[in-house]
Amino acid sequence: MDSLWLSALAMTVIVAVRYLATSGLFAWLTHRVRPGRYAGLEQQMRREIAWSLASAAIYGVPAGVIAWGWQKHGWTRIYADPRDYPLWWLPVSFLLYLLLHDTWFYWTHRWMHRPKVFRAIHGIHHASRPPTAWAAMNFHPIEAAIVGLFIPALVFVVPIHVGMLGLVLLVMTVMGVTNHMGWEIFPRRIVHAPAGKWLITASHHHRHHEQYKCNYGLYFRHWDHLCKTDKGLSAP
Ligand SMILES: [Zn+2]
Ligand SMILES: [Zn+2]
Predict the structure, then answer these.
(1) 111 pLDDT above the threshold of 70
(2) Which of 78, 88, 133, 140 is the most buried (most CB within 10 A)?
(3) In contact, 177 and 22? CB cutoff 8 Å
(4) What is the Cβ-side half-sphere exposure of residue 16, based on CA atoms within 13 angstroms?
(5) Rounded to whole angstroms, how far apart are CA atoms 123 and 212?
(6) How many degrees, rounded to 5, is the angle at CA 173 between CA 172 and CA 177?
(7) Which ligand lies nearest the alpha carbon of 121?
């Protein structure tokens, strides 16, 4: 039982350190390439860090419990030997995880923009005006649970190699930070090319923070296109 709590604590620390390292790196980069971008936002950034660290526990405790159950009792469909499934499943499972997480995010995000839910929960995320690199996990605890518990639930249903799961979490972390950074880090030849019509980067999510009722997606724009909620790119 001790090892269960240790695992939950360790995972919370890992998520918190991962957040501080990634957001810290991109905040530092912002000071280098866009000096003054976060001027006057010190109080807001403190708030973003506090909420994000609370979210780290909400992400970390279930992840720790699952990691413990995986090790001790073979819970979940996470596998360690890449040959347990056909090799083509490695990239397919990676993409499938991103697509499913994006779908979950799009619809729950739209729900959170209903006026009552927005006031009670999602308003905290939008209190960042404009968001900074520290806003990646700036969520009300209920929103953190809605956003953060999806992948822990998915590992019980869809098989994934542990390395691919690590890659999914890396993409989630980096895009969560860079999408809120307040400037576009990806080159114009990606953002303004055909691929950019389908992929979400800071230029897309920044418009969500400017106009609220549009651009709800997480990684991909197809739900926004299909539901006519895509209002194009902003120039952060
Ligand atoms: Zn946001
Ligand atoms: Zn929103």
Answers:
(1) yes
(2) 133
(3) yes
(4) 17
(5) 10
(6) 115
(7) 2
Band of residue 193 on the pLDDT scale cut at 50, 70, 90:
confident
Residue 66, burial from CB neighbour count under 10 angstroms (0-12, 13-18, 19+): buried
Question: Whole-prediction pTM value?
Answer: 0.94
Are the C-beta atoms of 78 and 162 separated by less than 8 Å? yes
Q: Which two tokens stand for residue 163?
A: 């390395």
For residue 202, report the distance from its CA to the centre of ligand 1, in Å: 9
Q: Domain for residue 234, yes or no?
A: no
Q: What is the pLDDT of residue 1?
A: 66
Count the domains in the chain: 1
Residue in this structure with the two tokens 């280098």, named with its chain if needed: 32
Cα of 82 to ligand 1 centre, how many Å? 35
Query: Is residue 233 one of the residues assigned to a domain?
Result: no
Domain region containing 151: 2-226
Query: Looking at the chain, how many residues does it have?
Result: 236
Task: Over range 60-86, report the average pLDDT.
Answer: 94
Flag whether 54 is in a domain: yes
Residue 174 covered by a domain: yes
Tell me: the pLDDT tens digits for 113-140?
999 999 999 999 999 989 999 999 999 9
What ranges in the chain are assigned the alpha helix state H?
A: 2-33, 42-73, 89-112, 115-117, 123-126, 141-148, 150-154, 162-178, 188-191, 202-211, 222-226
- CA 125 / ligand 2 centre spacing (Å): 7
Task: Kindly identify the ligand whose nearest atom is closest to the C-alpha of 143.
Answer: 2
Tokens of 110: 């739209």
CA of 77 to the centre of ligand 1 (A): 30
CA of 21 to the centre of ligand 1 (A): 19
